[in-house]
């Protein structure tokens, strides 16, 4: 593995180079006291690993790591630090390692083993890993490889949210200060940038095996997520919905399939406040799909199938009253008195428990009219 070392302390560089050279697995291509010089040489040297100090006067190791990742995303970063416990805990979250000063040979062996393991994963035999699907309905899941149960996992909740926001804004640049305000609104600017760079580092490392499909690029003071040949379930679903022909006996099964594939609201389990607009938009699209299918089935006198559609709406969105109302009307068409009364009772229980009020006046009025007509019809039949 080729490496460069960056530390403003000359003696620290000499010591680290001596230890690494003795291992036999590392070739030190250059040592730098000036981080800017290291950045200039990285494109030519193409190091596999960069060992860097955190606390340097001209440029912090956090800033340097950020720029290295922008220039050479495949490079592994190892931090050398004399920081206190706070910094140690922060950098412990990174994908490769941190090493405390003064660097000891035994501890450095652990780092080299980790680097070797990562190199074996990324350059091993056979086809590399790939992303099959990015799933955003209900929760974020990134399916990897051929097995349906394998998912990409994140080191921290912040890393997941940062990636998810860039995915949400896919193809658009997002300013760094906007990300800090979104994810760390209560920290000062300096600490905010440290948190951002550390988290970007984590995300890039998580995505590294899939860099041909997902890559975070830096542009001036912004980041952008580039996506290549990786499907997103909600994007794919919306495209198919918008491509649907008018509902008919030939297309109704496709409508039903798309109804089933909507497996939950957009990132519902993530509880990110910035998802609400997209969540409402996709929800409205799904509810419109429900109405289109149900209207067709009712017109075709296929009431059992229409009931199935509206029962799905009630299961997915139990707080929307219209689903209960349509079920009552369908059961009334079928002459099922008990089902109408049970559905109205369920509606009343829902609105009272969730909102502390009775159902909409129009729905109450419909039920009262239906109930009166049923009683009158039953009386006439009896007579």
From TrEMBL:
Pfam families in the record: BTAD (PF03704), Response_reg (PF00072)
Every copy of the Response regulatory domain together lies at 2-116
Question: What SUPFAM superfamilies would the database entry show?
Answer: C-terminal effector domain of the bipartite response regulators, CheY-like, TPR-like
Q: What is this protein called?
A: Response regulator
Q: Which residues carry this modification: 4-aspartylphosphate?
A: 53
Question: Which keywords describe this protein according to UniProt?
Answer: DNA-binding, Phosphoprotein, Transcription, Transcription regulation, Two-component regulatory system
Could you name the domain of life of the organism this protein comes from?
A: Bacteria
């Amino acid at each position: 593995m080729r490496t460069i070392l960056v530390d403003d302390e000359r003696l620290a560089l000499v010591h680290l180079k001596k230890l690494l050279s003795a291992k036999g697995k590392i070739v030190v291509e250059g040592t730098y006291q000036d981080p800017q010089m290291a950045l200039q040489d990285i494109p030519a040297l193409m190091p596999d690993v960069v060992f860097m100090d955190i606390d340097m006067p001209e440029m912090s190791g956090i800033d340097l790591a950020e720029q290295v990742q922008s220039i050479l995303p495949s490079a592994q970063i190892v931090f050398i630090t004399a920081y206190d416990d706070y910094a140690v805990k922060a950098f412990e979250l990174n994908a490769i390692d941190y090493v405390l000063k003064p660097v000891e040979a035994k501890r450095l062996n652990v780092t080299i083993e980790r680097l070797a393991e990562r190199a074996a994963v990324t350059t091993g035999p056979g086809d590399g890993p790939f992303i099959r699907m990015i799933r955003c309905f209900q929760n974020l899941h990134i399916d990897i490889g051929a097995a349906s149960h394998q998912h990409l996992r994140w080191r921290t909740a912040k890393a997941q949210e940062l990636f998810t926001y860039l995915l949400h804004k896919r193809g658009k640049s997002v300013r760094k200060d906007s990300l800090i305000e979104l994810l760390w609104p209560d920290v000062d600017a300096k600490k905010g940038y440290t948190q951002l760079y550390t988290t970007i580092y984590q995300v890039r490392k998580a995505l590294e095996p899939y860099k041909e499909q997902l890559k975070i690029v830096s542009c001036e003071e912004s980041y952008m997520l580039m996506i290549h040949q990786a499907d997103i379930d909600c994007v794919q679903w919306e495209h198919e919905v918008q491509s649907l022909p008018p509902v008919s006996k030939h297309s109704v099964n496709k409508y039903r399939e798309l109804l089933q594939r909507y497996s939950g609201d957009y990132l519902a389990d993530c509880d990110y406040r910035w998802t609400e607009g997209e969540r409402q938009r996709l929800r409205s699209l799904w509810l419109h799909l429900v109405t289109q299918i149900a209207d067709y089935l009712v017109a075709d006198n296929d009431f059992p199938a229409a009931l199935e559609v509206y029962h799905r709406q009630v299961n997915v969105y139990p707080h929307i009253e219209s689903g209960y109302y349509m079920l009552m009307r369908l059961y009334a068409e079928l002459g099922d008195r008990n089902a109408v009364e049970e559905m109205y009772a369920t509606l009343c229980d829902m609105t009272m428990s969730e909102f502390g009020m009775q159902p909409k006046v129009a729905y109450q009025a419909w039920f009262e009219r239906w109930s009166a007509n049923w009683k009158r019809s039953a009386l006439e039949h009896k007579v």
